[in-house]
Amino acid sequence: ETEAWPTVVFRCKEIGLPLFLVNARLSERSARRVNRFGKAGRALFQAFAGILAQTQFDAQRYRSLGVENVQIVGNLKFDVALDQALVKQGKQWQQDLHADKRLMVCAASTRDGEEAIILKAWKDLLLSNAFTKPPLLCLVPRHPERFTEVAEQINSAGLKFRRRSEWSGIPSECAGLDAILGDSMGEMPMYYGASDLVLMGGSLLPFGGQNLIEACAAGCPVLLGEHTYNFQQAALDAIAAGTAKRIHGELILGEPIALMEALKELLLNAAELAKMSAAATAYSIEHQGATNRILVALDQQTT
Q1: Fewer CB near the terminus (10 Å): N or C of the chain?
Q2: How far apart, in Å, are the Cα atoms of 100 and each of 96, 136, 175, 186, 290?
């Protein structure tokens, strides 16, 4: 995607071994960083035999570095199949929650600083008394070394919660809980399967956003912050397809009103959530096929 090791790249060029950058992406910020190295930075990417870019945005940035052989093939992440056994577990969990007339929001792959914003907004949401049965928050930090830190934040926020690791099977006995800490590895498909709405981490603060494509593949409506440059085209396409919405307004810690209002508006609109869920499935299917396009491109350029 973005890795380019100078010694390997230049040595392959020297001995005539074609080297391709596959599923390539280059953010505007990264392109500026490459340009700061001047001719040496641009020469690194020009030394590739070809670059198979995810989007038109990425292709344009590689071409701006002087790369001539650039093709747009789409994003391989759309071709990654979710673990259906985990999705099924999540759907069972969702059935249990719906039987209790509760919805669940998954704050997925959150980054340092975002949890405080989310927890403040969630507490305000619960205090709004807008729901007959309050929704459940499933907070899943991006980095496992932060699980304990985030648990302390949830506790300090005064929210009743349990860790996912406290259950041997799917989470149960959620009555009375405000939140669940998703302190497990490899279970995102289960969390998505159980969710009625996903708040995508990395997008509330300038981290560039995390992978919204997996959430869409699970049929989840997605709520995005302003910062999605790592998934620029995917985010724009998801919004255009009606499967994602952008939070408008500042997400400052003291008054994250925009986030609270966006969550409340969607959670109280069952018809809109259902429409977005159907759009998510269609969107994820529509954008598949990058794997085959990459293989065809490699065949054409190496024969």
Answers
A1: C
A2: 7, 11, 8, 27, 41
Instruction: State the Cα–Cα distance between residues 74 and 58, nearest whole angstrom.
Output: 10
Secondary structure (H, E, C), the chain = CCCCCHHHHHHHHHHCCCCEEEEECCCHHHHHHHHHCHHHHHHHHHCCCEEEECCHHHHHHHHHCCCCCEEECCCHHHHCCCCHHHHHHHHHHHHHHHHCCCCEEEEEEECCCHHHHHHHHHHHHHHCCCCCCCCEEEEEECCHHHHHHHHHHHHHCCCCEEEHHHCCCCCCCCCCCCEEECCCCCCHHHHHHHCCEEEECCCCCCCCCCCHHHHHHCCCCEEECCCCHHHHHHHHHHHHHCCEEECCCCCCCCCCHHHHHHHHHHHCCHHHHHHHHHHHHHHHHHCCCHHHHHHHHHHHHHC
pLDDT of residue 268: 97
Q: What is the pLDDT of residues 212-261, one digit of tens each?
A: 999 999 999 999 999 999 999 999 999 999 999 999 876 666 568 999 99
What residues contact residue 187 under an 8 Å CB cut-off, 6+ apart? 86, 164
pTM for the complete prediction?
0.91
Q: How far apart are CA 141 and CA 132, in angstroms?
A: 28
Annotate 47-85 with b (16+ C-beta within 10 A) or e (fewer).
Answer: bbbbbbbbbebbbebbeebebeebbbbbbbbbbeebeee
